[in-house]
Amino acid sequence: MAATAANITMPVISKLYCSSSQVVLVVRKRPHVVNGGGLVVTNCSQKVVFRVDGCGVLGTKGELVLKDGNGDALLLIRRKGGMVEALSIHKKWKGYTLDYEGSQKLVFTLKEPRPISCFANNNAIGISIEPKGSTSKDWDFEIKGYFPDKNCSIIDSIGNIVAQVGVKKEVDQLMASKDLYHVAVKPGIDQAFVLGVIAVLDYIHGESTRC
């Protein structure tokens, strides 16, 4: 995939979700007992721009759906299963866009290290974009940091930070559980793709999208 720059648009889901300026989104976890869990994402105007439904809503483990603010499905994310998966060092998550006819197109693959304890500190998670880019590495993006602390970044293949997850200090002091956090998405980066990755991280770490 091409290098990140302020004037380059890098759509993965759609260019509709690429902004010419940095966008800060607020992510709120939905409680399982009320709405079946999942995530609600708002912009600076407190308008809902994305939703994520997980196991508690869909009733299927290892499956996530990213929706736009109107509730229309944008991305179906599934954890690959089967005997080959059970023997693999990495568990893989695959993200598919959905068209009006319901057909699916693979747009990214995320490799989940195993065991989960490997996530701490320096063990990065690789993400490959489909179709394959020209990068010499096995991944187009990687995640560094520790998601449960809401302190991690998505970095491209040449080391540029394209999105950062964090918690404002005043929120961190009030909410030890980190049920509310923000994601800063750099100019030109597909916000829907970033939230799809966040949804997978939430599930992997047993948070709101898991049941």
Your description of this structure?
Strands 1-2-3-4-5-6-7-8-9-10-11-12 form a twelve-stranded antiparallel beta barrel. It has helices spanning 32-35, 55-58, 83-87, 169-174, 191-204, and strands at 23-29, 39-42, 48-53, 63-68, 73-79, 91-98, 104-112, 125-129, 141-146, 151-156, 161-166, 180-185. It contains five helices and twelve strands. Strand 2 (39-42) and strand 3 form a beta hairpin. Residues 2-6 and 116-122 have low confidence and may be disordered. It is α+β, with helices and mostly antiparallel strands and 211 residues long.
- Mean pLDDT over all positions: 83
**Number of E-type strands:** 12
The rough form would be described as globular
Strand line-up in the sheet with most strands: 1-2-3-4-5-6-7-8-9-10-11-12
Strand content: 35-45%
Briefly summarize what is shown.
This protein is α+β, with helices and mostly antiparallel strands.
Protein topology:
Layout: E1 23-29, H1 32-35, E2 39-42, E3 48-53, H2 55-58, E4 63-68, E5 73-79, H3 83-87, E6 91-98, E7 104-112, E8 125-129, E9 141-146, E10 151-156, E11 161-166, H4 169-174, E12 180-185, H5 191-204
Antiparallel strand pairs: 1-2, 1-12, 2-3, 3-4, 4-5, 5-6, 6-7, 7-8, 8-9, 9-10, 10-11, 11-12
Task: Describe the structure using short key phrases.
single chain; 211 residues; alpha+beta; 16% helix; 36% strand; globular; disordered N terminus
